[in-house]
Amino acid sequence: MPRRRITQTDVAAMAGVSQATVSFVLNGNTPAGVRIGEETRQRVLDAIRITGYTANPLAQRLAGGLTQILGVFTYEATFPRAGRDFYGPFLVGIEHAAERLGVDLLLFTSAPATGGRRQLTRDGWQRLGVADGCLLLGQHEDRGELQHLLDTNYPFVFIGKRGSDGGRLPYVGADYVGATTRQVHRLTALGHRHIGYIGVRGTDQPTLDRVEGYRTALKAQGLTPSFVEADDVAAAAAEILARSLTAVVVAPENHPEELADELERRGARVPVDVSVLLLGQPHHPRRGGRRWSGFSVPREEMGVRALYLLSRLVADDGGRRDREARRAHAVPGTELHQLLNCPDVEGATAVPPPSGTDRPARVP
Amino acid sequence: MPRRRITQTDVAAMAGVSQATVSFVLNGNTPAGVRIGEETRQRVLDAIRITGYTANPLAQRLAGGLTQILGVFTYEATFPRAGRDFYGPFLVGIEHAAERLGVDLLLFTSAPATGGRRQLTRDGWQRLGVADGCLLLGQHEDRGELQHLLDTNYPFVFIGKRGSDGGRLPYVGADYVGATTRQVHRLTALGHRHIGYIGVRGTDQPTLDRVEGYRTALKAQGLTPSFVEADDVAAAAAEILARSLTAVVVAPENHPEELADELERRGARVPVDVSVLLLGQPHHPRRGGRRWSGFSVPREEMGVRALYLLSRLVADDGGRRDREARRAHAVPGTELHQLLNCPDVEGATAVPPPSGTDRPARVP
DNA sequence: GCTCGCTAATAATGCGTATTACCGGATTGA
DNA sequence: TCAATCCGGTAATACGCATTATTAGCGAGC
Which stretches make up the HTH lacI-type domain (chains A, B) (predicted)? Predict the structure, then answer.
């Protein structure tokens, strides 16, 4: 009952040629010494049309070709059962790009999860091989794994800026430094002089970048940084008031909602007494919650760009010929390291400081 | 530079045996006539451990095995750029199940989209072959495509009940009939006697089921159905008031939010004057919008069950031996047709009818 | 007559695995 | 002693495709 699928051999039989001829016609390739007459070519093409033949991606790959499948590996669950949907927006972009590229997406959901984090173990390496290349999303990174990726020359692209040894790791990231800098400038333009940074200074790249942006912007304005590294919101709020800060910037993972609540509980209105700029989108938008001012991370666009970049890396790698002519002229949008702009979000949590504390820098 | 991956031949060389022996040891299979000594077996296993060998899924599949990849085909974009995220909840469940099954997911994003709908054309058939089986999500269905699926004996499972010719199509659906029936009973229990059904009666399965549930429940109560098939909310609202309905049931795609607004604009308060039960989750939950009463579709659970079912179909199909002993005792949770319960949502849009119109059926 | 050079293909091989067919030596049965 | 049986494996092949090496035919030039 399960009738075999049409193969090149079937097509060949129908056209009265050899399987190899069919392969040549399909690929348009006539590698040095092989010629196919126009008449035969047409016969083959007709046979293909009639039988509705399509290549078997697996066999192609096994024979050294490409599957037209691109992989997506997430270090955490791609679609979390609980908690915020972090990867969703990326996938929207990734899928869109995949559609345009005519490529299927392979989600590596089988990777063994150790302690909630997926590992790219040896078991996983073989599975990667099904795809022509792979997108890596998530903060976690394992030196050994990355080295192996580089060693085997397997095409991959990180989503999210890679700082350490970033030179060799292709990525598409968000410009947290620039965006954070701009947020501080928004505040100083409103007249703020005492601007704090809320949150523990972790070692993940986004945090490092936010801190750098904050530092840079304050220095440019001749102001002194004020880091509030409290463990809980209550302590943070107390510290903000103790230091008489009129504005703070805070990353989404540092509980801005709760912080604002805590501030108001202590009599400081947001934003009238304290402006709050959010360095990214809120994690758990509340129903009827605040409309945060700050910036947004272009996740969808990152997904698109990352897949395009990956696609190009695959193409470069797949076409083993003429390696030199490659980066003769860099194709725009396919640089190995891309930092996308994070557009400002107007919102409603940034206003001039209360009079009597700071003064607007310039009165219109 | 791109060092070859470890193959069975490499392992064989290290263990001093033939490639075939390695294959036998790996599969535990000793197909009638082949015997492997315990000592050799251990040597092979050691070699596997040392080299970190893992099977290449492509080669396995090509040789008639399984890839441990399951496909997901959506007739519309899986992750829509705009509009509601319909498939998301399903994917949460699907991914979770995939993780447990140790299986990767292949998203068929490359299928050519004609007029916004993906087609499963001949071009797609070959690509399907990469996966051991496939999940189909979306309302659209093409007779020819389905017939082909059945003919080729390719394992697949629909998400969403399949009515027409449903007998042969495996699916995991939601019990819209039962859930809708229950909603009407909720209303009658509150004392409503004039209950309308809002929305054009489409031919898609969920709508058919909702209408059936509505009909059944009303008949059981000795009440007469009242279908409001207006094109726009204004007309619908007018009709509701003209017919003096005290409660309506409405599917999420029929703009319940706008309908409620329109009713209140005309002086009828929701739910005081008109109770509204939502037959499913709202499509575009508003910030600070109503907390709808009604039921919810267990999409996540549907995803889980569907993938489990698919996995079983694949296993049945893959183990070509002893076909008969198969459904000797049906494994629970793997019936070919599954209808999942849609739990009630309490909400705040269902109250007893205003006194003077209807009376509570029973006063406590 | 024989080689050279060109056209138009085909035969053969490899990719990594599963599987079938076969084989060589040792032990047993008569 | 010779065949039958059993043990422990190997060789060969197929899967569907890409690619390299090779072949057959034919007209021209020496």
Answer: 6-64
CA distance A32 to A28: 12
Asked if residue A171 belongs to a domain, the reply is no
CB B229 within 8 A of CB B196: no
* Side chain identity, residue A228: V
The two structure tokens encoding residue B246: 């005290």
- The answer to whether A246 touches A355, Cβ cutoff 8 Å, is no
Token reading at A349? 């949590």
Separation of alpha carbons B297 and B118, rounded Å: 24
The domain containing residue B331 runs over which residues?
A: 69-154+300-340
Do B236 and B207 sit in the same domain of this protein? Answer: yes
- Cβ contacts of A59 on chain B, cutoff 8 Å: 62
The answer to whether residue A269 is domain-embedded is: yes
Q: Inspect the interface and report whether the beta carbons of B126 and A54 lie closer than 8 Å.
A: yes
Q: How many CA atoms lie within 13 A of B339 on its CB side?
A: 12
The count of other CB atoms within 10 Å of the CB of residue A153 is: 10
A225 plus A199 within the same structural domain: yes
In a shared domain, residues B125 and B231: no
Strand C: protein residues, Cβ closer than 7 A: A 16-21, 24, 33-37, 39-40, 59, 62-64, 126; B 4-5, 7-9, 19-20, 23-24, 26-27, 29, 31, 33-34, 53-56, 59-60, 62-65
User: Is the domain of B108 the same as that of B16?
Assistant: no
CA triple B205-B210-B211, angle to 5 deg: 100
The helix, strand and coil proportions of chain A, stated in percent and rounded to the nearest 5, come to 40, 15, 45
Give one DSSP letter per residue of A118-154, joined into a string: E---HHHHHHHTTSSEEEEESS---HHHHHHHHHHT-
User: B315 and B273 in one domain?
Assistant: no
Whether B204 maps to a domain, the answer reads yes
Alpha carbon distance, N-terminus to C-terminus of chain B: 82
Chain C: nucleotides below 7 Å from protein CB are 7-12, 14-23
Residue B316 DSSP symbol: H
- Do the Cβ atoms of A195 and A183 come closer than 8 Å? no
Clarify whether residues A188 and A280 are in a common domain.
yes
Q: What is the pLDDT along chain A (364 residues), one digit of tens a residue?
A: 346 788 999 999 999 999 999 999 998 877 777 889 999 999 999 999 999 898 999 999 999 889 999 999 998 877 777 666 788 889 999 999 999 999 999 999 988 777 777 888 767 788 898 999 999 998 777 777 788 888 888 999 999 998 877 678 899 999 999 999 999 999 999 999 999 999 988 888 999 999 999 999 999 999 999 999 998 999 999 999 999 999 999 999 999 999 999 999 999 999 999 999 999 998 877 777 899 999 999 999 999 999 999 999 998 876 443 333 334 344 566 788 999 999 999 999 999 999 865 544 444 4
Domains: count for chain A: 3
A180 shares its domain with A149 = no
* CATH code where residue B23 lies: 1.10.260.40
Whether the CB-CB separation of B197 and B213 falls below 8 Å is answered with: no
CB A81 within 8 A of CB B92: yes
CB-to-strand D contacts below 7 angstroms? A 4-5, 7-9, 19-20, 23-24, 26-27, 29, 31-34, 53, 55-56, 59-60, 62-65; B 16-21, 24, 33-37, 39-41, 59, 62-64, 126
Is position A345 within any domain? no
Which SS3 state, helix, strand or coil, does residue B248 take? strand
CATH of the domain at B183: 3.40.50.2300
Q: Are residues B304 and B275 in the same domain?
A: no
